[in-house]
Automatic annotation (TrEMBL):
UniProt signal peptide: 1-22
Provenance organism: Pseudomonas knackmussii
Highest taxon listed in the record's lineage: Bacteria
Protein name: Phosphate ABC transporter substrate-binding protein
Keyword Signal: yes
Key words of the record: Signal
Amino acid sequence: MKRFAQAALLALTAGAVGMASAEVAVIVNPGAAKAPSQSDVANIFLGKDKSMKGVDLKDWTPAKESFYSAVTSKNESQLKSYWSGLVFTGKGQPMASVADDAAMVAKVAAEADAIGYVDSAAVNDSVKVLFTLP
């Protein structure tokens, strides 16, 4: 019984590590006129570049954490502080947010100038992948 419990714990740990290291895909509508670079994407998601409509995940998920860490070098508290400052000074408003990866794919597929990010497993033919992040 003890070996079974150890094996189950090992399997759960391996699964959790696998989930935390999933790739994140930065996606756009296939008809998007612009294919922004990674630095352009950072500026879009920080409200500095209005050439595309950034779409954010509502909750702080592993995909959101990976995306913001890699693209903007900001963690959750830094990002909240950043947006609080912009809102307080009237210099910006956070972008639209969606509940999950499926809603993100649907929104980006429906809007020609939308850009978002999802776990790469959620990507389908309705969106175009700009690049992936580990």
